């Protein structure tokens, strides 16, 4: 054992900074006029973005590229799943996204462990790109309307606030394990796991292809 | 470990905290002793569960769910409202016993609060040991010698669960029942000691002297008579008739400065010393009497 290693804290800080630096490149701000703002994650190349349904269900969302010079883009809602609070957006000028916005690395959210590090980035209270660190508190299964019947949700102690909605919850490698969706009791974060998100995205894009 | 660099160090930390939760979670049980949300408990031996007294609304056939899903009916072995601790007996060795830290908690060290209020699985939150304080007067003659404060979030149902270090060793038992609006942890040394007493006697034995006292400053000449630096002692302003103090020869005007070899400078310290093993035993009590050091032997009574 080499502990205590004087450089250990430095290494951890550097690793955190690197993970969050990467995450910013796939993070968007979803503006929705007087209906507020939330976050979104670039899920597929070509400007396909995942956010929460409650962020966009009213009004006319516009996107800002957090790491892309603050340019604004109109966005089109291409799919919604209110029962699991997810929505899929298409940026209207996908060419820009292809170069500026790499899709986020998505991790498998099966087999998550309670106690493992959970990282969040979003826009709490309008503070753009703010980050926080916590752990996974638990995994529960909750009933939902519709054919799914029930879905897994990730509980985390990561400090979240309005404006984190639609932003990523990540593991220690920076892989997206969920979309931060709800705050319960002021201090419990609820995220929709990435395997549920991925299924929703595949289903939505598949349907579009069939049309 | 020095080979770790880049993200690996973060992944290693993450894995090790998840392993800590798994390890301590194997000794954390669900305790369904009240109408609302269940609380948590720690297996401190394979058939004894430590939990938070305030979460128990009954004493018999309390449903306990083990980490593997087994449901048992536990019986109350003892409870102590003063420290908010209670011990349940499972009746047969059924649980994996928790491992405790060997030393004291350190301010700033990582700490995970664990709870199992739902059969869905273990729950955890991350923080640090924020402060170590005490003594804390906890009502009904109770006095908690020391407590741990943490910034790990005490989610509903976490009372009775363990606060563990990053290796999954128990630092203390979490409870929100001692101080309104705050979650504290009772340090494992103290909690285990009280738990053993509860398992054996059904209650915590609190000692009784039978004196009224007030703290007074000790002038330097009296500190010289003591042979140590001690700024305060307890001036006895009353000795109850028929009390252990009277029987042992304590008198009004004595300044009590120590008991059982430990210095006593204020009433809290005296209260803290009068717990457990001393009860019923002849115990040396150190006093300053007329400026001279004297030791009298008092058989400590038990407060009912």
Based on DSSP secondary structure assignment, what is the total number of beta strands of chain B?
A: 22
**Which fold name is given in CATH as the topology of the largest domain in chain A?**
Thrombin, subunit H
Task: Please work out how many helical segments of chain A DSSP would assign.
Answer: 4
Major sheet attributes of chain A? 6 strands, antiparallel, barrel
Query: In the CATH hierarchy, what is the architecture of the largest domain in chain A at level 2?
Result: Beta Barrel
Main β-sheet description of chain B: 6 strands, antiparallel, barrel
Instruction: Report low-confidence residues of chain B grouped into runs of 5 or more.
Output: 1-5
CATH fold name of the largest domain in chain B, please?
Thrombin, subunit H
Shape of chain B: elongated
Tell me, what is the CATH class of the largest domain in chain B? Mainly Beta
Shape of chain A: globular
Description:
The complex is a heterodimer of chains A (211) and B (304). Chain A is α+β, with helices and mostly antiparallel strands and 211 residues long. Chain A folds into 2 domains: 22-103, Beta Barrel (Thrombin, subunit H); 117-200, Thrombin, subunit H. Chain A has 4 helices and 12 strands, in the order αβββαβββαββββββα. Chain A has helices spanning 8-24, 53-56, 94-100, 194-210, and strands at 27-31, 37-44, 48-52, 62-65, 72-81, 86-91, 117-122, 130-143, 150-156, 168-170, 176-184, 188-193. In chain A, the strands form 2 sheets. A 6-stranded antiparallel beta barrel of chain A has the order 1-2-3-6-5-4. Chain A has a 6-stranded antiparallel beta barrel with strand order 7-8-9-12-11-10. Chain B has 2 domains: 1-197, Thrombin, subunit H (Beta Barrel); 207-302, Roll (Pdz3 Domain), CATH 2.30.42. Chain B is 17% helix and 39% strand. Chain B has 5 helices and 22 strands. In chain B, the strands form 5 sheets. In chain B, strands 1-2-3-6-5-4 form a 6-stranded antiparallel β-barrel. Chain B has a 6-stranded antiparallel β-barrel with strand order 7-8-11-14-13-12. In chain B, strands 16, 17, 18, 19, 20 and 21 form a 6-stranded antiparallel β-sheet that branches. In chain B, β4 (62-65) and β5 (71-80) form a beta hairpin. The longest helix of chain B has 18 residues, at 8-25. The model of chain B is unreliable at 1-5 (pLDDT under 50). At the A-B interface, α1 and β8 of A face α1 and β8 of B.
């Amino acid at each position: 054992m080499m502990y205590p290693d004087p450089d250990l804290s430095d290494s951890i800080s550097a690793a955190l900074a690197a993970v969050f630096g990467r995450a910013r490149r796939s993070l968007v701000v979803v503006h929705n006029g007087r209906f507020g703002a939330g976050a979104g994650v670039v899920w597929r190349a070509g400007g396909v973005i995942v956010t929460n349904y409650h962020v966009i269900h009213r009004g006319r969302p516009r996107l800002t590229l957090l790491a892309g010079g603050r340019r604004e883009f109109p966005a089109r809602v291409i799919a919604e799943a209110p029962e699991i609070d997810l929505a899929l957006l298409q940026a209207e000028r996908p060419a820009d996204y292809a170069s500026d916005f790499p899709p986020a690395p998505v991790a498998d959210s099966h087999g998550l462990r309670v106690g493992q590090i959970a990282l969040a980035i979003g826009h709490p209270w309008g503070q753009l790109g703010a980050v926080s660190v916590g752990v996974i508190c638990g995994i529960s299964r909750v009933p939902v309307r519709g054919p799914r019947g029930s879905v897994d949700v990730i509980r985390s102690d990561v400090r979240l606030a309005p404006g984190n909605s639609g932003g990523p919850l990540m593991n220690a490698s920076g892989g997206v394990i969920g979309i931060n969706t709800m705050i319960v009791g002021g201090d419990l974060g609820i995220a929709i796991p990435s395997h549920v998100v991925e299924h929703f995205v595949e289903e939505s894009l598949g349907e579009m292809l069939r049309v | 470990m020095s080979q770790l660099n880049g993200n690996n160090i973060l992944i290693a930390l993450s894995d090790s905290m998840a392993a800590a939760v798994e390890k301590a979670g194997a000794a954390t049980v669900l305790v369904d002793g009240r109408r609302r949300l269940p609380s948590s408990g720690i297996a401190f031996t394979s058939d004894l569960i430590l939990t938070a007294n305030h979460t128990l609304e009954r004493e018999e056939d309390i449903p306990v769910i083990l980490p593997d899903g087994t449901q048992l009916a536990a019986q109350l072995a003892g409870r102590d409202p003063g420290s908010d601790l209670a011990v349940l007996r499972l009746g047969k060795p059924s649980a994996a016993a928790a491992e405790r830290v060997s030393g004291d908690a350190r301010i700033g060290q990582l700490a995970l609060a664990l709870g199992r209020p739902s059969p869905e699985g273990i729950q955890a939150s991350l923080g640090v040991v924020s402060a170590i304080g005490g003594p804390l007067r906890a009502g009904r003659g109770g006095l908690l010698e020391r407590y741990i404060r943490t910034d790990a979030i005490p989610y509903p149902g976490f009372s009775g669960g363990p606060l563990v270090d990053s290796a999954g060793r128990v630092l203390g038992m979490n409870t929100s029942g001692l101080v309104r609006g705050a979650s504290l942890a009772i340090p494992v040394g103290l909690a285990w000691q009280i738990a053993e007493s509860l398992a054996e006697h059904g209650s915590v034995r609190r000692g009784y002297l039978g004196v009224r006292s007030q703290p007074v400053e000790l002038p330097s000449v009296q500190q010289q008579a003591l042979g140590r630096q001690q700024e305060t002692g307890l001036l006895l302003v009353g000795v109850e008739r028929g009390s252990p103090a009277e029987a042992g020869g304590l008198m009004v005007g004595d300044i009590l400065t120590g008991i059982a070899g430990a210095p006593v400078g204020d009433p809290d310290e005296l209260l803290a010393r009068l717990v457990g093993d001393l009860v019923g035993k002849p115990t040396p009590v150190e006093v300053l009497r007329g400026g001279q050091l004297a030791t009298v032997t008092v058989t400590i009574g038990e407060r009912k």
